[in-house]
Amino acid sequence: MKKKILYIVVFFVVLILALFIVLKNGIVISSIQFDFLKLEQLYIKLDKKLIVRAKNITINETQNSEISSQIHSSDNASTEILKITKNLKYLYTFVEEIDIQNLNIKDNHVRILFKDNEFFIDNDLLFLKLTLQRQNKELIAD
Predict the structure, then answer these.
(1) What is the pTM of this model?
(2) Could you tell me where the DSSP H helices lie in the chain?
């Protein structure tokens, strides 16, 4: 029984170590497509924090019913984006840069950029630009 537990622990340690090494070197995917998702020019790297860059991400609403049921209108999409901004403290803690040039979800095209303490979202109905600063344990957005 102890050997099984030891093998499982060693397996997970090796798996996490391998993932860490791969992310330290960076992952580049020129294009990958699934039924529900299409990614173009995706780059992921772990420096001190996570770096994610993508030229185009398309989420097909016909295959992903949960997303398509949540986003019925453009107003609802803007509300979802505002909910995302409320969780910026986690983004600020673990991510150095996110640069998604074109995110397509059910005919909504969104540009997302988080870099150098600035958070930027732009789509047809919403333009959001925030400067983030950490003071004590709070995250201040201007």
Answers:
(1) 0.69
(2) 2-25, 65-70, 74-85, 88-94
Give CA–CA dist 110/125, Å, rounded.
Answer: 10
**3-class DSSP state of 130:** strand
Q: Under 8 Å CB-to-CB from 51, ≥6 apart: which residues? A: 43, 44, 45, 95, 96, 97
Distance CA 131, CA 142 (A): 5
Cβ-based neighbours of 27, under 8 Å, separated by 6 or more? 42, 43, 44, 45
Q: pLDDT band for position 93 (50/70/90)?
A: confident
Domain ranges of the chain: 27-141
Quick check: 54 and 42 in contact, CB under 8 A? yes
